[in-house]
Every structure is written in C-alpha cells, then in structure tokens.
Design a protein that fits this description.
2 copies of one chain form a homodimer.
Chain A lengths: L9 H7 L11 H22 L5 H11 L2 H10 L10 H5 L6 H19 L1 H17 L8 H12 L5 E8 L6 E8 L5 E7 L2 H21 L2
Antiparallel strand pairs in A: 1-2, 2-3
Helix pairs in contact in A: 1-6, 2-3, 2-6, 2-7, 3-9, 4-6, 6-7, 8-9
Main location (chains A, B): cytoplasm
Subcellular location (chains A, B): Cytoplasm
InterPro entries (chains A, B): dsRBD_dom, RNase_III, RNase_III_dom, RNase_III_sf
C-alpha cells in the first residue's frame, strides 16, 4: 500500500509524522482534524456501498474500519513507523511500533493531505487507501433480529423479549409498535415501528443493537 | 437564521426532513452521513480559529457546538419542525418539538446539501450556520491545570496530585515527565512531557481532562 498523494508542502507531511514526545509543534492538533475527516469520508463510502444498511449498521461497519488497531496496521503498510519523529524516550522504548502512535500519525497524515491539497484530494486518497477494506466488508447483512440474537449468544446473555406495544392508524395503513427488551446483565429497551409486526421487531432490534454499540464504545 | 443553500434536487431536502415514524425511506441514513460531515467541518473551523488549542480543547469545544440540544436549537431557528414529515403517532405527541428529532433532521439536512451540491457547498453552508457560535467561543482559554482544578472543584472532587516521574536528555535539552493523578471518586492517571516541569504538568493535566471528557461521554 502506498500513499497516492504528493505533497506540495512537505513540511505538512513532516508535521503529521511528529509525535508529541518530540516536542512542539507536533501532530496532535492535526490528528483531531484527520480523525474527523476520516470519519466523514469513510461514512460516505459506506453510504454509497451499503444502500440498504441502517444507520446502526453503517456505524458498526465504520468502527470496524476506523479504530486504533486497524489504522495502526494501515500505518504499518505505509511504513509510517520508520518515518516518525519521536522523542528520545519513545525512541528507546520502541514507540514507533506502538498502535496508538501509528494510528495517530495516520490520522494526522489524512489532515495533512486535506490542508495541502483540499477536500477532493483528501477524499480520493482516503478512498484509495480504504477501497479494498470496504470491498471486503460483508454485503448483504443479516437482519437485525438475527444479529442481535447472535451477539447476545456470543456474550452468553439471555435472548431478548419482543412485545407488541401499540397499533395505530386505519386497517389499510396500520403502524405497529413493538418493544425489544434485554434485562440482564445490562438492561436495554427500545421500541420500533413498522407497517407489520415483523418490521417493527426488526426496527426495535436495530435500535437495541445501536444502544449496545454505544454502551460498548463508552468502556 | 436561514439556510444559505438552494437545492437543485428538492427531493433530497424532503428526504432529510422525513422522520422514521413516517416510514421508509427516511432521514436515518442521511443523519449518519450528516453527523460525520458536521464533525469534520466544525473540526476544521476550530482548527483555524483556535490555533493554540490542544486536541482535547478542540474536542470539548466541538462537543459544545455539536450536540443534540445545540443542533435542535439551530433546527428551530431554521424552522425545521414545521417542515418535518412525521408519522401520525409522533404528530399527535408533538414529535416536531422533540430535541432528538430536530437534531437528527438538522444533521440529515447537512448530508442533503453535500449530496446535492458537493463538499464545498456543504462546507460553506455549515460555516455560515456556525459562524456566530464559533465566534462566541472563549478565545484565550485558561491553561489546562487551571481548567482541571476548576472542573474538579465544580464536581466537589479532591485536587490532583502532580509528581515528577523522570527527566531525560542532556542538560540543555532536558525533557521532563510528570504524572497527574486523581484518585477519587474516579481514578485517572496520565503522564505528560515537556521541556520544563511546568509544561509537563500542563500536558499531563490536559490528558487527564481528555480522559475525563471521554469517560463522561460514555455515560
């Protein structure tokens, strides 16, 4: 894997590869910007490639692609470790091999491309870097109830309970509201809506999956 | 406040204002994309307007600007509530006034501008919408030790303890490493670096602030 971008201002690339242990200025501020850009560009890729995925599914897929470990491994493929500027302490302790330092440099480099060449250049660079990984994602995902069930079983947690809460509207345009509840060891309830009971259950399961994902990220 | 963008394809704007209670298609997928774009565009504004802010400070400033309540209030200024398409249940229960529904519509609208007009149009629209709010942010922020102390006092928590952990390097280019520890009721320790003990303490305090902010978001 190579970076398909040539910097007009190489000092931006150098700054992106300067870790805070080397003093100031360093890549910390760029990392903030790069993280946000990466999130948006990968979000758009998933929006395009997964037209039927829900918000929750896209959010989980993005977390698979954009996390410290994944970005560190991309940084290694780009051989960023060898180019990092580190303070003497981090140098001695092998900081150029640390996931967090590599992932931060990768994010900062994305910001550097944006600052040097603008959004289109940054978007094209990120899309090229992530193309294979996005293409390798599962396409037709399982339905939300199945995914929730499999996830709960993998944790060894009890299965969810679905209850019809309400039906609304005329006979020919009825809306069903169903709650999905898991009680232990974490209590999460969500209610979903749909034009059939089955669709409302899927909707509720999807919401519970999203909340479980959010709760996990918090840990 | 008005939206300074005219849609070429008004159906994208209409979709952005269609809540899931009205059935499918709705604005949920667009909200995912809009949230990410908003994060990146506001990150860039802060990167430009706060050249001395650390990553942690920019992250906190962005959370002040981009959160459910703030976006809902912007949605109200744009009178999005009146234009929302809601299912009958949400209509009856006044869903057009709910913060979460309004904030989601605002985010979806940002994505709709992107899909309709491209990144530059979206960026310009968001920058115009946020200009006053960004300008109103505190400029010269207090140093990290002061902010950490004030934050801990506001919670009624004990003050942090700073300890010199190590010094590295030659006399004329020494690096100090200082740990900052809070013990109760939450235990957080971080170590910071700097060319003086004072700078290393600031750095450590900043890291503790960032971790406290992350822990808070998880709740």
């Amino acid at each position: 894997m190579v970076l398909t971008y040539s910097f007009r201002d190489p000092s931006l690339a150098a700054l992106a590869l300067t870790h805070r242990s080397a003093g100031k200025p360093n890549n910390e501020r760029m990392e903030f910007l790069g993280d946000a850009l990466l999130g948006a560009i990968v979000a758009e890729m998933l929006y395009e490639t997964h037209p039927k995925a829900t918000e929750g599914e896209m959010s989980r897929l993005r977390a698979q692609l954009v996390n410290g470990q994944a970005l560190a491994s991309m940084a290694r493929e780009l051989e960023l470790g060898e180019q990092l500027k580190l303070g003497s302490g981090e140098l001695k302790s092998g900081g150029f091999r640390r996931d967090s330092i590599l992932a931060d440099a990768f994010e900062a480099l994305v910001a550097a491309v944006y600052l040097d060449g603008g959004f289109d250049a940054c978007r094209q660079t990120v899309r090229t870097l992530f193309a294979d990984r996005v293409a390798a994602l599962p396409r037709s995902s399982k339905d939300a109830k199945t995914r929730l069930q499999e996830w709960l079983q993998a944790q060894g947690w009890p299965l969810p309970q679905y209850d019809l809460v309400a039906t609304e509207g005329e006979e020919h345009a009825r809306t069903f509201e169903v709650s999905c509840m898991i009680g232990e060891p974490v209590s999460v309830t969500a209610s979903g809506r749909g034009s059939s009971r089955r669709l409302a259950e899927q909707d509720a399961a999807e919401l519970v999956l999203t909340r479980l994902a959010v709760a996990q990220e918090g840990h």
